[in-house]
Amino acid sequence: MIRLRDVHVEKDGVPILRGIDLDLTQHRIGIIGRNGSGKSTLARLLNGIETPTRGTVELDGACDRKALRRAVGFVFQNPDNQIVYPIVEEDLAFGLKNLGLPKAEIAARIDAVLERFALTPLRTCLTHQLSGGEKQMIALAGVLVMDPRMIVLDEPTTLLDLWNKRAFMAAIDALAHRVVVVSHDLDLLRGFDRVVHVEDGAIVGDGSAGAVIDDYIARSQC
After folding, report:
1. pTM exceeds cut of 0.90
2. Which fold does the domain 2-220 belong to in CATH?
């Protein structure tokens, strides 16, 4: 379980998050809020990309940033910020090589994740020639091949057309992993177990998806 206690984040003296207390226990959690509300910073805290100025981010009761990075995979809004190697299989192998895994295990993991999402034909393709939908799926595969316990996704469907958005979210829905999704697409999150509303760096709503989303919409109409 990931737990945040009295978390504050400041950048150049400007408060981004303040007094965040969260226990992330549900299977599907959404994070919503206006642009600049701090929700993306909150998401990045969950796998150690960001660190708190004050407070703690704990994984199973321990403050261990390296363990957090290993346990929590992160999918960015733009897959071009995540895909670094020119060939698909090279990109998927990158993190596994850093773990020092044997070549046979690396190949087996890549085979499995590509087969899982029907991406095997893309194995030797140039990453820059992939479509937007294919890139986002490869970015997701690159996270899953590392065998994380939780996956955090920051606006993962913003750059996708309707068909690819549906295909991508179907892949997410099928995962056994605990998933946290930051999104402006409220309909995407209505079926989630829990939604957290962040506003001006603080949590102003936290509960069932329908109730929190409806309150968010009502606030926007004031």
Report:
1. yes
2. Rossmann fold (3.40.50)
